[in-house]
Write a structure and sequence with these properties.
This protein is α/β, with parallel strands linked by helices and about 325 residues long. About 50% of the residues lie in helices and about 15% in strands. Bound molecules: adenine (ADE) and zinc ion (ZN). Adenine binds next to loops.
Amino acid sequence: MTAKIELHLHIEGAAPPALARELAARKGVDTSGMFAEGGGYAWTDFTDFLRAYDRVAALFATPEDHRQLAEAVLRECAAHGVIYAELAISSDHVAEGDSVRFAEYLAAITEGAEAARAATGIEANFIATTIRHLGPDRAVHAARLAVACDHPRVVGLGLAGDERVFHPADFAPAFEIAREGGLKLTAHAGEACGADSVRAAMDALKLDRVDHGVRAIEDPALLARILDERIHLATCPGSNVALGSFPDWRSHPIAPFRALGVSASVSTDDPPFFATDMDREYVELTAAFGWGEAEFAAIARDALDGAFCDAGTKAALAAKL
Ligand code: ADE
Ligand code: ZN
């Protein structure tokens, strides 16, 4: 089976439910309503998903919690054939502008990533991802922390959270700090809102790639620009179907994107929230579009092209694809 590249995976959103349960029990945290019947996490709609996400994230508080989380998440990725992952990490969730706490956090998740690499060979980097609904001031703090930490695995700045609030231009100062500090840039757009939201994010934030970006399918001129500027879309079909952006897998725009020549890859976003993993994504895409080895190999090459790792890492990964 083709090796897989995962560019869009939120570390807390990927927390294995068994680990979350164990931590909650150890800490005496009430988990009523946290878990769904199928074994994942419970939520009802996009707003409630963001709330449920924060509740799970809050379970992970100490460096040891975060070390365990990083190792568990990356081992899980490797078990589904992923050879390289870019994890969205959030200083908003763990350090709130405190550089010492952020450095401790990075040391802990790096230790976890190294343990996962020793066990499975998986490579990983981190994207410092600020939370849109916490506002532009917090984003500036997050960008400053991400640049100042000067950590080899922190390769980019991202923007997640509630796309329906604020305007991308509000976050331009944060993204400017990150760009000047040498970080690559990505942002969630075109997930909960339409094509205009993708265009506005590209205009204001000078993105290297877009997380989701799927509603760009509604706007041919924007699609032409995405092609022209070679913007990579890190799409998450299972997440979009679960959250209701598209009614089913066959309606997901990854197929028309790829038919048009847009560089678009497959990631899982927050697997236990959306009853997915990389193997399920591939199975569902095969069922929906008849894709096989050739299509998935091309997707992995595009993902590597859109990855934020250095050229040496890209060459080593390319040799494994
Ligand atoms: N944070 C984690 N997953 C997210 C998603 N799909 N959209 C916005 N923010 C998120
Ligand atoms: Zn996401």
